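can u do me a favor
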């Protein structure tokens, strides 16, 4: 199932709750007709530098189930302003998000709408913050989506949380292998 098909299926099923991953937490911290905000916080054994590097290694941790092509190896992202979180295959391509800020070992911000959000008049801001911890780092991952009144975005918050939660678990598993 492709990324957009998966999100549509989840949206049809209704808002889904994600159980707290590992030692972290996940929550929809705000949802309304024209916006929603999701936040994850996860403790990882890797240090800040390793977490930062891993964020740019999408094929290693992003699920193929949530791509248009069905293959994670078609994903790429440069961790620099203007870098594209893109998917390219055969005669097709899609820009999922655009890097708008990158501070090595500390923070990455991306703009855009994932999956079916691309077909809606919305803006999105994804924000990854990495802070040192006693035994590794803490990754805080937020995704804010907002658009015109009347879009009825609230029902999408749960499904988007579910999809991003799966990606966070993939990232944590990838970091655990390092």
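np, heres the sequence
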């Amino acid at each position: 199932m492709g990324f957009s098909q998966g999100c549509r299926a989840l949206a049809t099923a209704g808002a889904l709750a994600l159980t707290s991953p590992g030692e972290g937490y996940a929550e929809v911290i705000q949802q309304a007709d024209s916006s929603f905000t999701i936040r994850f916080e996860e403790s990882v054994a890797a240090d800040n530098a390793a977490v930062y590097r891993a964020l740019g290694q999408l094929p290693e941790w992003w699920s193929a189930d949530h791509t248009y092509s069905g293959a994670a190896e078609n994903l790429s992202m440069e961790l620099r302003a203007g870098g594209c979180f893109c998917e390219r295959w055969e005669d097709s391509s899609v820009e999922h998000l655009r890097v708008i800020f990158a501070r090595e070992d500390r923070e990455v911000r991306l703009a855009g709408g994932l999956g079916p959000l691309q077909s809606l008049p919305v803006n999105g801001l994804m924000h990854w913050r990495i802070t040192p911890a006693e035994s590794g780092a803490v990754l805080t991952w937020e995704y804010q989506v907002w658009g015109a009144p009347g879009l009825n975005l609230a029902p999408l918050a749960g499904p988007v949380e579910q999809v991003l939660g799966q990606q966070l678990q993939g990232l944590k598993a990838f970091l655990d292998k390092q």
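The two ends are 29 Å apart (CA to CA). hope that helps!!
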